[in-house]
Structure formats: structure tokens, C-alpha cells
Amino acid sequence: MKTLRALFISSRTWSILIGFVLLFVAAYGLPVLFPVAQVAFVVFVILLLLDGLALFRSANTPFFARREVPDRLSNGDENPLTIYVENRYPFRADADVIDEIPFQFQRRDVLFKVRLKPRETQAIRYELRPTRRGEYSFGAVNVFVLTPLGLLKRRFQFEKERMVAVYPSFLQMRQYELLAATNRLNEVGIKRIRRIGHSMEFEQVRPYSTGDDVRTVNWKATARRTDAGGATLMTNAYQDERSQPVYCLIDKGRVMRSPFEGLTLLDYAINASLVLSNIALIKQDRAGILTFSDRVGQLLPADRRTGHMLKILELLYRQKTRFLESDYEALYTAVRTNIRQRSLLLLFTNFETVSAMHRQLPYLRRLAKDHLLLVIFFENTELRSLLDQPATDTEQIYLKTIGEKFAFEKKQIVKELQQYGIQTILTAPRNLTADTVNKYLELKARGMI
């Protein structure tokens, strides 16, 4: 029974059998074809037996496959996977490799065709992009092997049942960290920002550069440099303020359930929070997380000790969207109770209308009174694509008119928040991480935190 379960008939065999049926039918009209059909059928049956014998004669495993998958997958990123296949048959083998990927991907096209010489090994590489955090279950790697005759298939199964966790986008975090270490953040849209002010902590005397504050010119050091034969202005350099608390406040309410390119707005906010927290730690600041919806979720106090980044990653991995209205009064109470030092608060949320923002404005103003508040919400990119298209009939004119109203309300929200001294970012989901990091570096350069 085990052999029968592993035995499959190839499409070539079915085509040949159909040909024999047509040949025998034709033999009724042309009897001379009947002996030819009989001989051909006997030869076919012998080849079929030889093909089966070649596939099943070995007691050991004559074909081997192994899937190499990371222990964790990065949400929203293309994660590389590799399947290694090895032909241990003494003849050339063709194989169809089917990987049973988790059902969350909703893909049925993970099929690879390979041809291997005897004792040859090949690596099959492909990528998967998860769009939800959580546990993903990989099934078996199914390999259907054919001999050069290609009449029968033998199925082999490897790597049965493996669970892999999908975490927030740690690949994106590593990318930003690497670019920051090599001073190439501009490649992902991070601007170089000249410091406007400075702290009072002296660092060094260095040559003056265009854009430096002229008030920091060190005239005594310049005079000494001139006496030594040079003519270069020297300026005092000051260290950035360090160990400033930076909190990411993540709204998990129903407004963050909206999808964009497979990911929800919550997942975009989580990925951006992970990257920003890592950048803050690199800048010697302290990073913390607070989540909320209809009630306050989890709070991770701002810190920068060893292992703190792992705590942030684990906390963000467990977050889920709730389908209820977010309670900003509970958020304000939690911030006032647990965050006593003046901090930079990055609030990831979404407002579609001015009236929705007005309901929460009193609590936002109270937060901005004690802390530096940065409200981050999202553009409706589908609406933007609609507005960019020319209208050709009355219905499209009506739709564009309504769309312009909603787009104007987004801009009005930004303007009203800024009137109360609240920093804002209105961004497309795909640009969220770069825009957030840019704003953080700008606020730090301006000495506002």
C-alpha cells in the first residue's frame, strides 16, 4: 500500500493510452492496424514495468530534498527560502517539486521543475512575502520523480509540518541600521539635516563648514590657526542631547484595520515603530512602546539597555487589531500616569474626517502640553489615484468631487493640529518609515527633544 500511494501516472502515459484507444478504434475499420496495435501495446506495458522497477527498486531513499527556511519571517518583506534537491538514482531524473506553503499566502503555484544528473544537487530559491504576523505552518516538500522514459512518477515527501513565526519587519530594521552605520541613509529617503541649534555639552573644535551657526565660531582657535600659517575658521561642535525618551503610541482601533498592498495600517505602524526604536537607540536615546484601542494595551517603559530591542520586537509581534473605537481619554490617563519625564510621543493613528479629529483634539492638546507630540496619519492612496485620473463622464466628476472633499479634509486636519503646536505627518503607507525617521532626526536636530 505504501508503494501504491507513492505511485502516480504521468501525463505522457495518459496521452499514450488515449492514442492506443484511438488506434484500436481505427483497427475496426482497417484490420491491418490491429496486430500493430497489439505489439505496440505489449511493448508499452513492458516499458511501463521497467519504468516502475527503475523507480522503486532501491530500498534506500534514492532522492532527497530539504527546505531551508529562516526561524522567523519578516512581515511585509520578501523572505528568501531554499529547497535543496539531490538525485541519488544512477540515471538522469526529472522532478516536479511542490512546496506546501502556509495557507495564509493563498498561493497554489509553488511548483518547480528540475532535471538532475546522477548524484547531482541543485538549490531552488524563491521568496515569500507574508502580510500578517503570527504563526505559519509549512507542510511537506513533495517531489514527483520521473525516469528518462517519463511514464510513471514516484512521490517523495520531506520536511513535514514546521511552524515558523512571522515577526514585524526586522529585515527593514536591519537595512536601516546597516545604512545608518555606513552613512547611506539617503538611499532609503532619509534626508541629511543640518543642526539648527546645539546643546550646551561641548564636544570638539573643528573647521567651519557651510551651514554652521556663525555664533559657534571659536575666534581664539581661528587666530591660533592663522598664526600657524592657515586661514581656516574654527568652530565649536556640541554633542547631541542623549538619553531622551521616545515613545511610539500605536492605535489598534478599527481605523487601523484598513489594508494597503496586503498589509493593514497597524502593521505599517508596527514596522515603522520597530525601525524608529532601533534608530533612537543608535542615537543614544531611550525607546518605549505604548499600545491602545478601546482600552490601554501594553506599555514598555523607555530604556536603552542591552536586550531592550528584543523586548520591543516581542511586544510588537503580539499586537492585534481590535474592531472598536479607540479611547483617547484612556491613552491620556496612561501617558500622564506612566510617562512623567517630557518625551517625544509618536502617535500612529488615522483620521479620515475633521470631525473625527475634533472628537480627540482635547486629549491631543493635553498630551502636547506636557510632551512633544507628533501625530502620524495616512493618506488615502486609492483616493489619490482616483483624483489623478481625468474625469470623462458625469459619474466620474461626481466621484472626483467627493474625493477632493476628503483629500481637503486631510490637509485641514494637518493645519488645525499645527495651529495648536502639534507636529504632524501625513504620509502614504509605503513612505511611513522614511518620513517618520526623517521627522525624528529633524526634531532632534532642532533641539526640540
What's the topology here?
Blueprint: H1 2-5, E1 7-9, H2 11-29, H3 33-56, E2 63-68, E3 72-74, E4 79-87, E5 93-99, E6 111-116, E7 121-128, E8 134-138, E9 141-146, E10 152-158, E11 162-167, H4 170-181, E12 202-207, H5 219-227, E13 234-238, E14 245-251, E15 259-260, E16 263-264, H6 265-282, E17 286-292, E18 296-303, H7 308-317, H8 328-338, E19 344-348, H9 354-370, E20 372-378, H10 381-388, H11 394-419, E21 423-427, H12 432-445
Parallel strand pairs: 3-11, 14-17, 14-19, 19-20, 20-21
Antiparallel strand pairs: 1-10, 2-4, 4-7, 5-6, 5-9, 8-11, 9-10, 12-13, 15-16, 17-18
Helix pairs in contact: 2-3, 4-6, 6-7, 6-12, 8-9, 10-11
Keywords: Membrane, Transmembrane, Transmembrane helix
InterPro entries: DUF58, vWFA_dom_sf
Pfam families: DUF58 (PF01882)
Record keyword descriptors for this entry.
3 domains, elongated, Rossmann fold, Immunoglobulin-like
